[in-house]
Specification:
Distance between the termini: 14 Å
Radius of gyration: 24 Å
Number of strands: 14
Number of domains: 3
CATH class of the largest domain: Alpha Beta
Largest sheet: 5 strands, mixed
Low-confidence stretches: 103-116
Strand order of the largest sheet: 4-5-6-8-7
Oligomer: single chain
Shape: globular
Structural class: alpha/beta
Amino acid sequence: MPLKWSYSEYINGSILDQIKQNRKISDSFINASIEDIPDISLFKDIKLASGRIIEAVQSKEKIMIFGHDDVDGVTSAYILFDFLENIGSQNHFYYIPNRLLDTNYMFWTAVGTLADKVPLIGVNRIIIKDVLEKWFSFDDLTIETMKPYFVAPHNFEKRMSILKFITKILSNGRMPAGENLALSCLLVSRKEKEVIIKKLIAEQRDHEYKLRKVSSYLNSSITRPTLNWFFFKDSENKIEINLMGFSASLLTKKFMIPVVVLKERSGVFSGEGRCMEGFDLMEAFTFCREHLIQFGGHKKAAGFTILPGEIENFQKKFSIYVNKHKQEIEFSRKISVDAVFSIDELDKLDDYLQTDYYLLQPFGQGNSNPKFLLKNYHPKRDADKIKLKKTENKLESDKVYNLIVSHEGSSFNLVDHRNINYLL
């Protein structure tokens, strides 16, 4: 079943006006700067916490920074470690538990998971935007050492790609006994950084190879489910335990339904669930809790453990919950269009790309790259007017189409398409 296209057409509006109207974006969103961040003193107990840290430094007490082994856990541990160094502490240390080895610590470190993949709106967007705008003012030894691996930071898109690259690199380096290569990379001398960066990049390449392998396996072995939910049990042991979440996400994006991936480990099954906007996995797992050992997470990404004998009962209960929420699932199976223009109105697109495109950046979760409905596109006639990617075997050269596209670099990705006669 094709995805629904959801859009409003404002005939006289520029592309930026249409995007602002459809997303309900105010001028304050576009003009936000670092000065708009809330006063840090509003944090609960900030004076108490900062006073206690200063007291510990002055008394030469031992200070242990207990971090989390994801990227925001590593970088926040680095910021605090570096701060303590700069104010004269001589007795501070860090401990970064390895989630694959130190499972006993995960109750505490799971709290840090809530910071992952935050929407790029409000304060989060302001911080990223400020970094992108002040890119060349940063004087940091780690960034300097990584530069040979960067693309040239000519614009916001390139700078965002560098930030994403650094994020990927620092997501590696988990080690036993509380050590973490990514955090070490941020703390050591330049010469040591160069060695560690090479190791982290090698780990990342290995990780990306595994992701491609799993993606290929899932795409080739799984056909579109007939139900409005999907369970996949890794009976062939093709998916590593730390790639279960990735696998569930891939299948959710592909089929636009809630997905649970199951894998056996030491006589107990672990499950990772992912879903689209509008469905609530935590509510679903709560509904099924009598069959689970434990569960946790948030609306769109959650996990659990379960005994083998309870899997069938859990599936039945989960199915009941999903069927009660069919409407939310169907409603989420849509593509929200931000602006509409025809092939004869490419001047509107040029104006947007040349003057307005960077006003909405940075793009990310909660502020996605806009999607455009391009009407009356004829591949043979219009191929030179607009550069499209990902059209292989999708468009016949002598037919007319309506397309949904998104801008990336110097071209556009084809997101979805309809024959011109298809009722929009």
